[in-house]
Write a structure and sequence with these properties.
The longest helix is centred in the middle third of the chain and has 49 residues. The chain has one domain: Sodium/glucose cotransporter (Up-down Bundle). With 497 residues, it is mostly helical. The protein contains 21 helices and no strands.
Length: 497
């Protein structure tokens, strides 16, 4: 494809706007904040309203995989992939509805700034906190690489400029605005990104319907040439085991994702939480089901088998945009998936930084009786964000393939590690240090080992093994381990005096 300045300009303008907004928000929040740099930088001073909370959670959850890899799979498999994606409607409801209020109340009682602060206090274990920080950084890094790669590939396919140019244009900007803006800046730019995603999705839908001759013509073509795509099991390409696997990964076990759970610490009041649950559920459903449906409909303009498009489902949506829209509209349209990419990167980058700076460095300094000044904290946090972001950027220069698989691998790893620690920590008094350490190590190791060797039970994704081993370890450890202190439990439960 030839280079198109018309396709490049909307993306460039959008990225500049994100940078300007982030700088403005950082300066404005610095003047108003009374909780100090750490609370402001990592959780936005616990002041997010319902709309911003909903949109930042949606934007973080709906990564570039939701706009590129997932819809590409839908093109290849058919409506079965759409039916699977319906479970994503539950994501915000599960995280904010189950953990939102209880975790927020506990975090305020102990003045927690990060998820690991809550884990450390609930289980009274520095070792568990440090293991959690390492796991978060490793799996977040894998997810961020997938976002960089997806955004740059999309940029290359639509604008005609090289993969590296795309990586530089949006990769470096998102690193800079995350470094400068902190949590509040990320939350507000995430909200803008979520709106951009919806607009981009609408433009692409109209473009594909027009290019394909209308909905009826596209469906007639699919019924004639690819009838299996209209079946729930897609002629065997969408077996029940795959439904179950994806429902677990992107539905039930999303409570175990730290990048979503940290939002429970940041909202202003109960009203904001309730508004976020309602609005976020509607938006995340429309976005994920909508994009998968668009992926199926793109079969009306991208005809042939996967081999015709480089044997990669990641190529489908970029090509659909390029073939169904003119350069200017294509440039506006790719803002949506690029926004999905940068919103996920910014949130994960900030969470990874908080794990390193707040949960490891500052805690170790405080244990030694040293007071870390706000100036040092500010500089170290921003330097760490910048360095970590650049490291991921350079890894992404030689990109891996199959974005959605990388994303799902990271999802599964985080869920195996944290699902029971979060859920049982908030709702089971007997959950203790021994159980939590066993759960995080047993769940993560069993998941990674079975992924490496390709071991499965009933052809269901390895998340089943990871989650099951994690639960067994949690229960055994909690039964035989040392009991929790009453003063600790009183933060999370109503206890007997």
């Amino acid at each position: 494809m030839s280079k198109s300045i018309l396709a490049l300009m909307p993306v460039f303008i959008f990225m500049v706007c994100m940078l300007v907004v982030s700088i403005y928000v950082r300066r404005a929040s610095a003047k108003k904040s009374s909780g100090g740099f750490v609370k402001e930088y990592f959780i936005g001073g616990r002041s997010l309203g319902g709309f911003v909370l909903a949109m930042t959670t949606v934007a973080t959850y709906s990564s570039v995989s939701s706009f590129v890899g997932g819809p590409g799979q839908a093109w290849n498999i058919g409506f079965g992939w759409v039916y699977m994606s319906v479970v994503q409607v539950t994501a915000l409801l599960l995280v904010l509805g189950i953990l939102g209020k209880k975790m927020a109340l506990a975090a305020r009682k102990i003045d927690a700034v990060t998820i690991i602060d809550v884990i450390r206090h609930r289980y009274q274990s520095d070792a568990l906190a440090n293991i959690s920080a390492i796991i978060i950084v490793v799996f977040f890094a894998a997810t961020m690489v997938a976002q960089f790669v997806g955004g740059a590939k999309l940029f290359e396919a639509v604008t005609g400029y090289s993969y590296l140019v795309g990586l530089i244009v949006f990769g470096l900007v998102v690193i800079i605005y995350t470094t400068v803006g902190g949590f509040r800046g990320v939350a507000i730019t995430d909200a803008i990104c979520a709106i951009a995603m919806l607009i981009g999705m609408g433009i692409l839908l109209i473009g594909i319907l027009k290019a394909g001759g209308g909905y009826e013509a596209i469906m007639t073509h699919l019924a004639t040439e690819k009838p299996q795509t209209l079946e729930p099991l897609s002629g065997g390409n969408m077996p029940i085991s795959l439904y179950i696997s994806q429902w677990m990964l992107v539905g039930i076990f999303t409570i175990g994702l730290p990048q979503s759970t940290v939002r429970c610490l940041s909202y202003k009041d109960t009203r904001s939480l309730h508004r976020a649950i309602i609005l976020g559920t509607v938006v995340v459903g429309a976005m994920n089901i909508g994009m998968c449906t668009i992926g199926v409909l793109s079969g009306g303009i991208l005809k042939g088998d996967l081999a015709s498009y480089g044997n990669s489902v990641d190529n489908i949506i970029p090509l659909a945009i390029a073939q169904s829209l003119g350069p200017l509209l294509a440039g506006i349209c790719i803002i949506g998936p690029i926004a999905a990419s940068i919103s996920t990167i910014s949130s994960l980058l900030l969470s990874a930084t908080s794990s390193i700076v707040k949960d490891v460095y500052m805690h170790e300094q405080e244990k030694r009786g040293k007071v870390v000044s706000e100036k040092v904290t500010t500089s170290f946090s921003q330097i760490c964000t910048l360095v970590l972001g650049l490291l991921i950027f350079f890894i992404s220069i030689n990109p891996p393939d199959v974005i959605w698989k990388i994303n799902m691998f990271a999802f599964g790893g985080l869920e195996s590690a944290f699902f029971w620690i979060f859920l049982l920590g908030m709702f089971w008094k007997k959950a203790n240090k021994a159980g939590a350490v066993g759960a995080i190590l047993g769940g993560t190791l069993s998941y990674c080992v079975t992924m490496f060797f390709g071991l499965k039970i009933a052809d269901i994704h390895q998340i089943l093994i990871g989650i099951t081993v994690s639960l067994i370890c949690m229960v055994i450890g909690s039964v035989v381990g040392k009991k929790n202190k009453e003063e600790v439990l009183s933060v999370y439960f109503i206890t007997k005096k």
